[in-house]
Amino acid sequence: MEVLEQKLNYKFNNKKLLQNALTHSSYANEVRNGITSNERLEFLGDSVLSIIVAEYLFLHYKNIPEGELTKLRASLVCEKTLCKFSRELELGKFLKLGKGEDKGGGRERDSILADAFEALLAAMYLDGGMEVATKHVLRFVVPEIEDKNQHTFKDYKTALQEIIQRNPEEYVTYVLKGESGPDHDKVFEVEVHLNSNVIGRGKGKNKKQAEQMAAKQALELMGAPI
Fold it and tell me: Annotated catalytic residue: which of 39, 46, 102, 110?
């Protein structure tokens, strides 16, 4: 366990929490003797992970509309991403699995690795508090976000603002030009102005999304990389 703690950069006060986080249901069912699986910790870890990721996105991506934030958060807490994090920790080596599960390749099974990452997070949260849990999660999540930004996710408003700020006398404003559709399915239309000139228009299901699309069009017209 000391090797895993070194990988985590965290030393547990309550080693039983760490042991529990690594115990798969196949092992608990096989050995019994009062041993419990990591399923309850996984349940808690799922919620802890979600709030940490949501708070980080909320605080650091203020111009991104809710719909895009939701998609990004979902991509960060999905099984594919979590098992990637587990493999970085080589978590499979430390899992307690039943004999059948072990022989069947359980140490490399995506679902088991993803669940173990959440269980381990919950154990760290219970043992050291939210600060410890947050530090652990962001160690993996921040690089993942940066990678996704480069490939799929763009904050067009910030990109446009960075370009405009090179000329201090110029400024950008976003003007709501109209909205249409029923209350449950509205479409907003926004113009982005450079000083008094229209340089982009966009539509979206809320004003923030429309502003992002207007900024995207302005960047495209400027020939800026998107």
Answer: 46
